[in-house]
Amino acid sequence: MLIPQVKNPILVARCFLRFLVYGKANKEINLPESVLIIQLGKFGDMLATTPMFRAVKKTYPACRVTVIGNKVNKELVEGNLDIDEYIVWDNDVDNMISTLKGNSYDFGCVTGPNFHSLAALFLSGIKTISAPVIKNGWSPYETRSYKIIRNFVIKRDHRMRHYVPREYLRLLEPIGIYTEDTKKYIYWSTKGEAKAKEIISEINKPYSWLVGIMPGAGNKAKQWSARRFAKVSDYLVKKYNAYILIIGSEANRKEISEMRNAVIYRDSVTDTSRTSVDEVKALISKLDF
Predict the structure, then answer these.
(1) Rg (CA), the chain
(2) How confident is the model at residue 4 (pLDDT cuts 50, 70, 90)?
(3) Measuring CA to CA, which of 46, 122, 214, 267 is 20 to 30 A from 174?
């Protein structure tokens, strides 16, 4: 009686049938040779996931680490030596299942509650899978379908209002990785480094702080008013002699334009939003704040 009430009854039913035949994806692993981590969030989410990649490589140096994420985040983790393969998420779940079946993963996990990605892991036959359970809060992605099939894998608490990178690391506990190390790892090219230095060299006034502000969140639930970002910018310039670099992309053009039009101290602001992802990574490394 439960399945007809969910939005994805056929996919849920497929997962349920697999559970009846093969049981839960909770098998014990002593020495994983191949690990799969799915992160379908935005830039900040993927950056917060990089400690997971390092933790796997540090504990099991010979283990192959595969990451699944969106196309933009592939550029973000470019050059990361802790990642052996990056697969761009295909919104067609059956295509993803076929892709995953073609590889032999000992362990897989989803960093956030996502029904389709968890279903893809389970139906691809990975024998050990972990998935988060939201505690002390609520997530719109923790759907009824997700909650049903989450019972077929290993569950780990994800505590809201706690440090996200540390919460992600809990997902690795089923393969014997227990760590508090949340250091992030990001890499960029010499070309990106040169562009970042060029942007900074073109600032034609003295400043005490170099501050980056990204007025676009990419998610309406997280979006703060661009006009408020403009007020923050003006405050930092006036009180701390800061110079502001606006960071973002074409996807944030509306918020960036609104912020630029609202700032008072326009001679202390540069819009760098047309730089590449590689250049943005290098530029952020030069910021004071």
Answers:
(1) 21
(2) very low
(3) 46
Q: Which long-range contacts (CB under 8 A, 24 or more apart) does 207-210 make?
A: 207/241, 207/242, 207/243, 207/268, 208/240, 208/241, 208/242, 209/236, 209/240, 209/241, 209/242, 209/243, 209/288, 209/289, 210/242, 210/243, 210/245, 210/286, 210/287, 210/288, 210/289
pTM score, whole prediction? 0.88
Q: Are the beta carbons of 109 and 171 closer than 8 angstroms? A: yes
Query: According to the model, what pLDDT value does residue 119 have?
Result: 98
Half-sphere CA count of 123, side-chain side, radius 13 A: 22
Model pLDDT, residue 44: 87
Rounded to an integer, the average pLDDT of 27-41 is: 96
User: Residue 244 in 3-state DSSP?
Assistant: strand
Of the candidates 216, 227, 271, the one whose C-alpha atom is nearest the C-alpha of residue 245 is 271
C-alpha distances in Å from residue 209, one per residue of 243, 245, 248: 6, 11, 19
Tokens 């030069």: give the residue.
Answer: 286
Question: In sequence order, which ranges of 60-162 are alpha helices (DSSP H)?
Answer: 71-76, 93-101, 115-123, 144-150
Helix (H, G, I), strand (E, B) or coil at 123: helix
List, edge to edge, every strand of the sheet that includes 129-135: 85-88, 64-69, 34-38, 107-110, 129-135, 154-159
Cβ contacts of 43 within 8 Å, gap of 6 or more: 72, 73, 76, 218
Measured CA to CA, the distance from residue 35 to residue 130 in angstroms comes to 11
DSSP 53: H
